[in-house]
């Protein structure tokens, strides 16, 4: 079994206490020297006995150098701790300020929403009313501005559409006009050809079949001399006026 934990307490016997101090001091100085040599560490050990006697050990006997280094380190550490404490205090103060500001803003927001008005007096309610009226005035002003800008934009678009509509109407009228003129151009050669044909038909003299008078024949089949030819009935043929005038002349 291992040794149990020994409870440390002051040795009441003065002689035993002095003997234990001598033994432990020598062992402590030996351990300090071993750590300094084995680990290449700077070690400084200071011991005062109950009678005020000084015992010390320092690596390479540079106690002053080690103590000066210790003081610098201790001072820097104290400054750092002080700065951290101050910074922490500033952060705590800033946190409290921000927390109070957030609470105030939340409270004002509730008042603007019409909540928690029981804690406000008459003057505070009047100030809240004026604040709401001012806010509504700014909101209406901004709303009117946006509406006017929207109306102006719509009017501009309307004008642009009207101009485009006029251009399209003009193009449509010109197209319809061209479509109406095209059939007239197609019918003009046909009318000219028809007029020429009718004119030629009127000018050309019609062929007439004018038969001669029959010659009298005797009983034996011979021609009777001195007999006048008898006229045969003929069909009336209508002649154009220009031919009648020519014949009469």
Task: Give a verbal description of the structure.
- This protein is mainly α.
- It has a domain at 13-61: Transcription factor, MADS-box (SRF-like, 3-Layer(aba) Sandwich), CATH 3.40.1810.
- Helices cover 67% and strands 4% of the residues.
- The protein is built from four helices and two strands, in the order αββααα.
- The chain is elongated, with a radius of gyration of 71 Å.
- It is found in: Nucleus.
- One of its GO terms (cellular component) is nucleus.
- Residues 1-61 form the MADS-box domain.
Task: Give the key terms.
249 residues, mainly alpha, SRF-like, two-stranded antiparallel sheet, 4 helices, 2 strands, 67% helix
Layout of helices and strands, plus pairs?
Layout: H1 14-39, E1 44-48, E2 54-58, H2 63-112, H3 122-203, H4 241-248
Antiparallel strand pairs: 1-2
Number of strands: 2
Cα gyration radius (Å) = 71 Å
Give the C-level CATH assignment of the domain at 13-61. Alpha Beta
Low-confidence stretches: 199-204, 206-213, 215-220, 224-228
Order of helices and strands: HEEHHH
User: Which architecture name of the domain at 13-61 does CATH use?
Assistant: 3-Layer(aba) Sandwich
Domain MADS-box: 1-61
Subcellular location: Nucleus
Biased composition (Low complexity): 181-198
InterPro entries: MADS-box/MEF2_TF, MEF2-like_N, TF_Kbox, TF_MADSbox, TF_MADSbox_sf
